[in-house]
Amino acid sequence: MARPKPNPFRYFNSSPEVIRLAVMMYVRCPLSLRNVEDLLHERGIDICHETVRFWWNRFGPLFAGEIRKRRTRAGNFSLWHWHVDEVFVKINGELHYLWRAIDHEGEALEFFVSKTRDKAGALKFLKKAMKHYGRPEIIVTDGLRSYGAAMREIGKLKRREVGRWKNNQAENSHQSFRRREAVMLKFRRTKTLQKFAAVHGQIHNHFNLERHLVNREIYKQRRSAALAECRAVAA
């Protein structure tokens, strides 16, 4: 008989509900650590902003991993179109590249940070994404030659699509990350950027309810369902 998983909250005096609320507020919304501290104080919860930092580092990947696991089980990613793009990010004044893959619905799949934008970086990123989600039907990229060289090596060059406006979906997906980057006053370590991008992407997917495409009643139903599932994940 398999052993039950240990309770991740067993050594914490605060309730799991408070921890979940603090982590979701920080990761989901463009708030600083001190903003979260002040908002929780208004609810009668007195914690330090460093506690919020510790909680999101400890439980953010845990929550995001569970959301990702449920979504991976439910999706057939081999039939999907991926949109792949990279964005410039400065870490302590040094230029890095954050590679991102999103699906045809605009939800983030995979993230990878590298110092270069060459074939080696593109190859590592694509292999990492395919390891988790399988091989997609179509991969849409911009005109960067690194993608062509990497996809030729993995045998996907014939499934690559390049167009002037075809990859706008990937370009627009950077907006939520850029808002977070500004609030956090940029990043200081590569590890922190990789970790936060992965956690933020999965939680952003979970609460991406497409409110501009549905009426108010459907949006409210989806929002309630997303919150209920989020509580179940944190439980």
Q: Can you give a write-up of this model?
A:
By secondary structure, this protein is of the alpha/beta class. The chain is built from nine helices and five strands; from the N terminus they run αααβββαβαβαααα. A five-stranded mixed beta sheet has the order 3-2-1-4-5, with helices on both faces. Helix 2 crosses helix 3, helix 3 packs across helix 8 (about 190-205) and helix 4 (about 120-135) packs across helix 5. The longest helix has 26 residues, at about 50-75.
Question: Main attributes?
Answer:
alpha/beta, five-stranded mixed sheet, 5 strands, globular
Number of helices: 9
Order of helices and strands: HHHEEEHEHEHHHH
Number of strands: 5
Q: What proportion strand? A: 5-15%
Shape: globular
Structural class: alpha/beta
Largest sheet: 5 strands, mixed
Radius of gyration: 19 Å
Arrangement of strands in the largest sheet: 3-2-1-4-5
Estimated helix fraction: 40-55%
Which secondary structure elements does this structure contain, and how are they paired or packed?
Blueprint: H1 16-28, H2 33-42, H3 49-74, E1 81-91, E2 94-102, E3 108-114, H4 119-133, E4 138-141, H5 145-153, E5 160-162, H6 168-172, H7 174-183, H8 190-206, H9 216-234
Parallel strand pairs: 1-4, 4-5
Antiparallel strand pairs: 1-2, 2-3
Helix pairs in contact: 1-3, 2-3, 3-8, 4-5
